[in-house]
Amino acid sequence: MNPSAFCTDVVLEYGSGENRVRALDGVTVRVENGDRLALRGRSGSGKTTLLHVLGGLVEPDQGEVGREGRVAYVFQGSNLLPTFTAYENLAFAARGVESESPDPLHLLQLVGLAAKAEHLPDELSGGERQRVALARALAQSPALLLCDEPTGQLDSDTGVRVLDLIDALQHAYGFALVTATHDEDVVNRHGKVLELNEGRVVGESG
Questions:
Q1: Could you write out the three-class secondary structure of 135-163?
Q2: Domain span holding position 136
Q3: How many independent structural domains does the chain possess?
Q4: pLDDT tens-digit profile of 86-140?
Q5: Three-state secondary structure call for residue 79
Q6: Helix or strand (DSSP H, E) at 145
Q7: Which pLDDT tens digit goes with each residue over 187-196?
Q8: What pTM was estimated for this model as a whole?
Q9: Are 74 and 85 in contact (CB under 8 A)?
Q10: Cα–Cα distances in Å, from 124 out to 104, 113, 131?
Q11: Could you tell me if 100 and 131 are in contact, meaning their C-beta atoms sit under 8 angstroms apart?
Q12: What is the CATH number of the domain that holds 104?
């Protein structure tokens, strides 16, 4: 069976001349179907850059990258379309997805927000916006869900509820999950951990 995503000996640099920075330095990672992988490291370690490479948002300068099936993102900020309702945000994300895409209202029910389907993002709390963002990601029927500090802008109690929801939805839908984080409580929810420092893999477990 093919992995959900992989990268091999990936190198990625930003800037030029004296300001050139090697964001990823020979990174190799393989994400299997159904995996729960945490990318751990402090700010600037390369974890978000690796997330973007795995998902195809950024092309590396060197190395090989591959992915199987659709990829969806949940960012630290919800990044919802501000003039679209919660329902419309999900319906927009599902454009071009074949018939297996879940119904937007059903997804809003799953995240406990069916009653807020016609609300705009600025009419929702931070936790509610992040739950809509999670439902929006699922509207794309992903094989791989990439989360970049998904609770970074939430208070601890709301963050726990969002993480519990991600866990439950992965169990229900079976997508592979990769989360970039520096939060040990988030790391401990994952079966595999990749430790990054200055663009290099310095530790691996699970």
A1: HHHHCCCCCEEEEECCCCCCCHHHHHHHH
A2: 5-205
A3: 1
A4: 999 999 998 877 656 678 999 999 999 999 999 999 999 999 999 999 999 999 9
A5: coil
A6: strand 144-148
A7: 999 999 999 9
A8: 0.92
A9: no
A10: 17, 10, 10
A11: no
A12: 3.40.50.300
